[in-house]
Amino acid sequence: MSLNVQVWLASKEVADRLDLHVRTLRNWLEMFVPVNERQKNAQGHYLISEHGVMLLNEVKKRKDAGNASLRDIQRQMVEEGLIRLDELSAAEEAEEKKEAESLALDVQQRTIASLHEVEQTVQETLFHFQQELTHLSSMQSAQAAILEKIADIEEMQESLRLEIRRVTFEMDLMHQRLTRRKERQNRYQSRWRLNPFRWFSREQRLYVE
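Predicted structure:
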């Protein structure tokens, strides 16, 4: 009793066997191999069934045999019953649907990531705004303290000006007193020098008189 085990070959291995570029092989897969004869692994690389490899080998032979285009070869193989258009159409639709789902998932993931970034940006902005409000409140308190200090300094300046005026007034007054005293002394000395009896004692002055 034999077991039928499906063998899947990597697209790189099939491309090397058919002497094709991997990109060319992928284009041929879409045109000649039904979706049930090919699949992708976790890394996104194609795996091709034995029947799919046989179809690709037939395409390679016909391509090397003449100048027929891929569309002509596809039409010939359809006419010969090697492939079916409905299977290829279903394969294309399945691929398109898969790509659309993948694209939608990618868009959804990017949208979610963008929303997370916006949310994080909003939170950071709100945090900075709260910090600025706190800083502004501190600045207002500091400004009030500064204004109070300025008022104290102005009051001290006014007191200092009054004290300077008082000291200046007392100095002027003292200067005037000293000036008047000096004038009196000068007048007294002048009279003393003019008095002819300034050299005699009181008894002598009485005797002379």
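Summary: Strands lie at 8-10, 38-40, 46-49.
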